[in-house]
Amino acid sequence: MVSIAKTSIYYGGVAEDVRKQIGVLTGYSEEQFPFRYLGVTLNPEKLQLINSILFGLENYWCSDLLLPKVVVNLINKLCKDYFWGTQPGKHKMIFQRWHSICSPWQEGGFNINELLSWNKALICKWLWLLSQNRDGIWDKLTKDYNMLDASIWTAQCKPHHAESWRAILKVRDSLLGLVGDQVAVQDVLDSSVLKGRFVISKVYDKLRQKHSKLGWARVLSYPEILPKHKISLIQAAQQVLSTVDKISARGYHLVNRCCLCEGALESHRHLFFRCPFSQAVRRLMLHWLGLTGSWSALALKNWLYRLLPQHGMLSWRCALVFSCLAGLVFTLWEERNNLIFLGRAKKPELLATELQWVLKIRLSASNNPHIRSWLVNK
Ligand SMILES: [Zn+2]
Q1: Domain count of the fold of the chain
Q2: Are 229 and 370 contained in the same domain?
Q3: Any domain includes 368
Q4: Cβ pair 212, 192 in contact under 8 A
Q5: How far is the CA of 285 from the centre of ligand 1 (A)?
Q6: How far is the centre of ligand 1, averaged over its atoms, from the C-alpha of 265 (Å)?
Q7: Three-class SS state of 223
Q8: 261: CA distance to ligand 1 center in Å?
Q9: How many CB atoms lie within 10 A of CB 77?
Q10: Are residues 246 and 335 in the same domain?
């Protein structure tokens, strides 16, 4: 038995008159969400800013010292809040973990450096220099610290030793715990050297948390895809956008209706691209690309696999199709957000025309002569 007094109803993309009718019929009061539940399109400039701030901060503070965990957590929280646009006191429902975001594009992340591993990677450089006794650095240290019998693998820290030395030994021990013994650690360090230079990003790649590579990762290597389109494509293909079905699965009882077609439940599968509205935009884009055939009722990932070069499509045609597909995903998600948050609706024809202009500008910068000659007739 449902208590009317204790039950509220939440709406997503439902017109005001319909909300009123539902209220009259059910007797439930309407509630506003305690969080901004229906996601926004992510801005690639934010990624760039986070990376450059972290890079500056890391290189300044982290090349000699290990940041305390509490500081790492605080910086990560600031980055997360900025990235997701979270406002103080307002919770935001997020379906992608930070460590997954801090992974390369090919693993479904957004190429942000993970702070703790980058910090350790920077200190690894000192560990390598000491293990090589570069410029007599190890001899000098053992003399200063009066530990002439020790090696970099056996040296211990005393209370009066500097914090930076303490950090090096902590990273050494953490590496020993990670890979086993000093031979294996030395291998990790030596394999991070290129032309006599220690490359931080190489050792970072060994320290960071790995995620499985996306089966369709090659798609992301096409430079013709706009960065903001690439972000939306990754999120949609991994089904981490805040669609109503995902929010409902967390226990929020939403009226689930796709705001683009107003005729079906909203899910990734529906939005990309079973929705009649989305199909209309897609048809226009496929026509623009000169593609025909049956394209309906395929999930997004199937599209990505089916279109990869090994299935017979020429590389420059792939670049066109993937940049268009990523643009389509971005456009549909943006249109759906605009409808919900701003009440602004556009016709499929207008969305397709706008997307074509955006793509024309991007593609005109392509180095590929086939793409440029294709553009002449557009
Ligand atoms: Zn729909």
Answers
A1: 2
A2: yes
A3: yes
A4: no
A5: 18
A6: 7
A7: coil
A8: 4
A9: 12
A10: yes
35-64 tens-digit pLDDT? 444 455 566 777 777 877 776 666 666 777
pLDDT tens sequence across 227-266: 999 999 999 989 999 888 888 888 777 777 899 998 888 9
CA of 354 to the centre of ligand 1 (A): 20
What region, left, alpha or beta, does residue 27 occupy, with left being phi > 0 and alpha being psi -120 to 50 degrees? left
Ligand 1: distance of its center to the CA of 270 in Å?
Answer: 6
CA 339 to ligand 1 centroid distance, Å: 12
C-alpha 263 to ligand 1 mean position (Å): 6
User: Containing domain of residue 162, as a range?
Assistant: 116-207
Q: How far is the CA of 340 from the centre of ligand 1 (A)?
A: 13
Distance 93 CA to ligand 1 centre (A): 22
Residue 226 near residue 327 (C-beta atoms within 8 A): yes
Q: Which two tokens stand for residue 149?
A: 């019998």
pLDDT 10s digits, 74-117: 888 888 888 877 776 666 777 888 888 899 989 999 888 898 99
Q: What is the spatial distance between Cα 70 and Cα 91, in angstroms, rounded to a whole number?
A: 21
pLDDT in tens, 267-310: 998 998 789 999 999 889 988 988 766 555 556 667 677 666 65
DSSP, collapsed to helix, strand or coil, labels residue 88 as coil
pTM over 0.85: no
Cα 32 to middle of ligand 1, angstroms: 23
Cβ atoms of 266 and 245 within 8 Å: the answer is yes
Of 181, 207, 233, the domain-final residue: 207
How far, in Å, is the centroid of ligand 1 from the Cα of 257? Answer: 8
Residue 193, SS3? strand
Distance 269 CA to ligand 1 centre (A): 10
Cα radius of gyration (the chain): 26
Helix (H, G, I), strand (E, B) or coil at 290: coil
Distance 38 CA to ligand 1 centre (A): 15
Domain end: 150, 175, 207, which one?
207
For residue 150, report the distance from its CA to the centre of ligand 1, in Å. 69
Q: Is 10 contained in some domain?
A: no
